[in-house]
TrEMBL record:
<keyword id="KW-0732">Signal</keyword>
<feature type="signal peptide">
    <location>
        <begin position="1"/>
        <end position="20"/>
    </location>
</feature>
<feature type="domain" description="Right handed beta helix">
    <location>
        <begin position="251"/>
        <end position="336"/>
    </location>
</feature>
<dbReference type="InterPro" id="IPR011050">
    <property type="entry name" value="Pectin_lyase_fold/virulence"/>
</dbReference>
<protein>
    <recommendedName>
        <fullName>Right handed beta helix domain-containing protein</fullName>
    </recommendedName>
</protein>
<dbReference type="InterPro" id="IPR039448">
    <property type="entry name" value="Beta_helix"/>
</dbReference>
<dbReference type="InterPro" id="IPR012334">
    <property type="entry name" value="Pectin_lyas_fold"/>
</dbReference>
<feature type="domain" description="Right handed beta helix">
    <location>
        <begin position="94"/>
        <end position="242"/>
    </location>
</feature>
<dbReference type="InterPro" id="IPR006626">
    <property type="entry name" value="PbH1"/>
</dbReference>
<dbReference type="Pfam" id="PF13229">
    <property type="entry name" value="Beta_helix"/>
</dbReference>
<dbReference type="InterPro" id="IPR022441">
    <property type="entry name" value="Para_beta_helix_rpt-2"/>
</dbReference>
Amino acid sequence: MLPAVLALALVVTLSGCAVSENPSGPTSSSSTTVRVPADAATIQEAVDKVPEGGMVLISPGTYTEEVTVSTRNITLRGLDRDGVIIDGEGLRANGIQVIADGVRVQNLTVTRHTFNGVLVTGMHDENGPQAHNLTGYQKLDPAKFPPLQRFEVDHVTATNNGLYGIYAFNSQNGVLSNNYASGSADSGFYVGQCQDCSILVSGNVAERNAIGYENANASDSVVITGNRFSGNRVGLTLLSWYQEAFVPQRGATVVGNVISDNNSADSPAQAQGGFGIGVGLSGAQSDTLERNLVSGNSVSGVQLSNTEDIATTGTRLTDNALSGNGVDVADVAATRSPTTTTCITPDTGLSLLPGDLAASCSAGASAGVAASALPQVQVPAGVSFLKVGRPVLQPNLDGDLTAVPDALPTSGPAGSFNTTSVTLPAADLLVSSTGTR
């Protein structure tokens, strides 16, 4: 992996845990802009018309269409984040499907799709974009389906979608930043099936989803920082999954996030019945969680388990603030795939299951407890993804929205992202973007 180029059109600045609301920043350019509806009646017509390096600029309105972006290095941007709405009407699968390198999606809303609000994928053929939950999914052949390169989804609102709000699959060198997701029947944000991913997930808000953020088989230089994953059924998961390529998941960094109060009743049910969990690790390996605020999750703050025969190993929990959880850290792995080398620093004052869990850092395997040993809570019935409440108005992308940005750099910022300056976030991080109207 080439080192990330940070002196680029996309700049992420952390002050404590605050993430810049303008990571790419509109810049001057002479590239052609196609306006909707002035130059093209639909977004898809504009996307098909715009040249490489250009921009589709969308005026406020509701657009009942499914958009596929197959032109490299273009920007798809709304002039008003809350006013530009791509509405699936509960009928169409995906709002925006990105299958070309170097694409930005900015400043708009995708809602009421049966699968995904935004799908970025390197897995596509003559039948269109594919991902593991779509009809016709097949195991990844890297020669046939090389990963998509360079993407950005920024200042996008994804609500009431049947699977994922914003979904990056078989893709590398990208950024998901300053987005909002709610009402997703699987997860608000999902990064899956990539090695040497170099993907940065920053400044996002997920609430009232089955899961706030999910990472399956996405490994090496995935950095999740400065986000708020609160008020879901499960806040964040890192997992290995045999239905995707590149097992096992490994090497993610989760730093400086608020992962709190994931006990939502106004949300779709989680497929495995998960509820009241801040962070779930399943068959996850060599992941680092540091300086996160994990609080108010009624069952567990951090929960460790296995995926079939894949054990969770080498988890580092460092300088996190865990409080008000049913239990702060719990290991519920099966005996056949025991959790090993869980390092918790500091462990003083934390509630642990089993009680000697912190000793596994030096002793090796932990003896997981039965799920019945966890705090027992009443799990509310799920809500249809189409009926989850509408979010409050979300902030727009700053700057001159008519200016076309320069091309995305050849490598993503996560590979050389410096986590040492990221501090423990305040409890109200990004709270102004939460709630319903």
